[in-house]
Amino acid sequence: MNILQELRDRKHLRDIDIYFAKNIAESFCVPEGELLFALIFNATEGGNTCLDTEKPELFEFYETYQKDIDSVLRKEMINSLIDAGVIAEAPSMNAPFIKAGNSLYMKSFYSDEKSVADFIKERALRDDQCEIDRLLKVINSYFPENSMQKAAAANAALNSLSVISGGPGTGKTTTVFSLIALMGDISGKPLKTAVCAPTGKAASRLTETITEKRNSVSGDSGAEHIPEKAVTIHRLLGMTGDSKRPVYDKDNKLPYDILVVDEASMVDVRLMAKLIDGLKSDCRLILMGDKDQLASVQPGAVLGDICLNAPVGDFTKERAELLSNISDSPLRGSGDRFSNITIMLDKSYRYKSDEGIGLLAAAAGAGDADTALDVLKKDSTGVVDFIKLDDSFESVIGTFILDHVKSYTSTDDPANAIELFNRFRILTPHRKTAGGTDHINAVALKTLFKAGINDNTKQFYNGMPVMIVQNDYGLSLFNGETGLILGQGEECRAHFADENSKTRMITPARLPDHVPAYSMTVHKSQGSEFDHVLFVLPESDSKILTRELFYTALTRARKHLTIISTEKAVYDCIRRKTERASGLFT
Fold first, then answer.
1. What is the pLDDT of residue 572?
2. Ramachandran angles phi, psi of 176, nearest 5°
3. Is the C or the N end of the chain the one with fewer CB within 10 Å?
4. Is the peptide bond before 91 cis (omega within 30 degrees of 0)?
């Protein structure tokens, strides 16, 4: 059997990988390159921007097909394809594929990654972006207490590109909004500022905090510089509806002086390239996120790559001394100017660092599976529960779901119902496997029907949670946003949280594409928080079960975490680190 056919039949390669590989091989009369081209296309499916010829093991199927894959990664093979004109050596871009070092790229991904890399390097080498004397004069008005938040704000004020990383509850948002007000004060003139996020749900949740922050900023002035709402990156760039081409690009720049990107770990390299294309040369860019969270679904892990290559907490000697004096925080000064980009907020105002969720998160982020299991088995705080995954799974899950539904349907106030619904969520890594969202949603329907709470003959019923899976800008409903169906018969309406503790009410028939939301994937939960999270982690050798996924799931919980799994599944998950091929800093 043809190797491409076999890889497709076993679902290792996609039809689109093979289609484009064959077309290019035929166009250049190089049939021997078909497998290599298909592998380059397929590499992006795993979140890689390129195929790293030194790390073929990033393909899950490498061990089975090692001989075939190694044969097309030989230097002789690649050189012959360069001679045929189908692969160009960087910096040349005159071919469908580009070779840069040990990496092979699709041309478009090489172009995007190079654009992002050039931007980061140029910004890192710029001189201080504000007068230090002026900064020292006003910063205490906005950050009266010495802290790493104060150091982060001062560092960002001096940079044209900054990354502020930190886990939940470390004050990233508070720091950045106070920083915007501070910069407005320093500038002495009106500043145009914008805040954006990669998804509609994240932008919506960020908007909820803006009014509060505008009213709580310390200092004598500057709050008027904080924008009134957040938008998606796509909407910011004018990429709405069917339009894939940005309105704002290298020829038509965005008007902003300061741009903040929240949940930056979710931004892939292509979207980042489009964003920086649209920035004025003097626009200050601030990336805010958690380096330990899941990376973007699409290829590239820009925030993670920056934090990995610009050591967090290390600065040039001069910058470290300045920030230490400003914030009374001890900082290392052995880095280069590139190191000045990043700063880490490591004090959580939500979790205690030595117990419960805080200790578990630290262990998971560090890949310390033994400590994590110790916390799960011996937690005495009542904050973390560990339930063994066994044949009683459906019964256990059903009980949690039934109690939850009874809770939020006990009130006649839609806003209160949504608030109660959003206190608890079941998270899972997958959609279609045992223990995935489809399975759990089916268990929910069966459990609620038995209890007489829902009618399986009706499409919509009182208490049904729904999650939007397609953006609808007309209704201001975004992918990942959740709501509740409340009421019976003709009175049945979909309710979604709105500003000022109110709800938006929509006829269910008008809803964009949606699914039941008794549970959701960890990926969909990014940007959300719940008082109580129940995380279902099955035993599997799937490469998506990583420490980043585990960390992301558990840090969605504000107060209480329940994990249904096995010790082996937890150990394997935390020990498996996400690895992506990227040439962003090579």
1. 95
2. -70, -40
3. N
4. yes
Cα–Cα distance, 125 to 573 (Å, whole number)? 39
What is the band of 537 on the pLDDT scale with cuts at 50, 70, 90?
very high
Region label for 85, one of left (φ > 0), alpha (ψ between -120 and 50) or beta (otherwise): left
What is the pLDDT, as a whole number, of residue 297?
Answer: 84
pTM: 0.91
Between the alpha carbon of residue 284 and those of residues 108, 159, 261, the distances in Å are: 26, 7, 11
Residue 513 has pLDDT above 80, yes or no: yes
Cα–Cα distance, 386 to 375 (Å, whole number): 9
* 421 residue type, one letter: F
CA 173/CA 443 separation, integer angstroms? 38
What is the spatial distance between Cα 471 and Cα 429, in angstroms, rounded to a whole number? 22
Q: Which helix (H) or strand (E) holds 426?
A: strand 424-428
Rounded Cα distance between 209 and 463, Å, is 27
Q: What percent of the chain has pLDDT over 70?
A: 96
Angle between helices 172-187 and 200-216 (to 10 degrees): 60
Q: Does 218 score more than 60 pLDDT?
A: no
The mean per-residue pLDDT over the stretch 313-334 comes to: 91
Is the confidence at residue 458, as pLDDT, over 70?
Answer: yes
How much is the pLDDT for 500?
Answer: 63
In 247-360, the DSSP E strands lie at 258-261, 284-289, 342-345
Could you report the per-residue pLDDT of 1-50, keeping only the tens digit for each?
589 999 999 999 999 999 999 999 999 999 999 999 999 999 998 899 99
d(CA 11, CA 568): 27
More confident residue, 298 or 278: 278
Residue 550 near residue 561 (C-beta atoms within 8 A) = no
Full DSSP string of 169-217: TS-HHHHHHHHHHHHHHHH-S---EEEEESSHHHHHHHHHHHHHHHHH-
Contact of 109 with 269, CB cutoff 8 Å: yes
Name the packing angle between helices 356-366 and 369-378 (round to 10°). Answer: 160
CA distance 165 to 312: 9
Q: What is the pLDDT of residue 215?
A: 67
Answer whether 262's CB lies under 8 Å from 173's CB: yes
Burial 380-418, CB ≥16 within 10 A → b, else e: eeebbebbebeeebeebbbebbbebbeebbeeeebeebb
Rounded Cα–Cα distance for residues 126 and 180 (Å) = 20
Token pair in block for residue 384: 């973390």
**Cα 399 off chain centre by:** 31
Does pLDDT of 568 surpass 80? Answer: yes
- Taking the alpha carbons at both ends of the chain, their separation in whole angstroms is 38
Residue entry with tokens 């007309």: 474
Question: Interhelix angle for 132-142 vs 148-158, to 10°?
Answer: 140
The pLDDT mean for the chain works out to: 90
CB-CB contact of 506 with 486 (8 Å): no
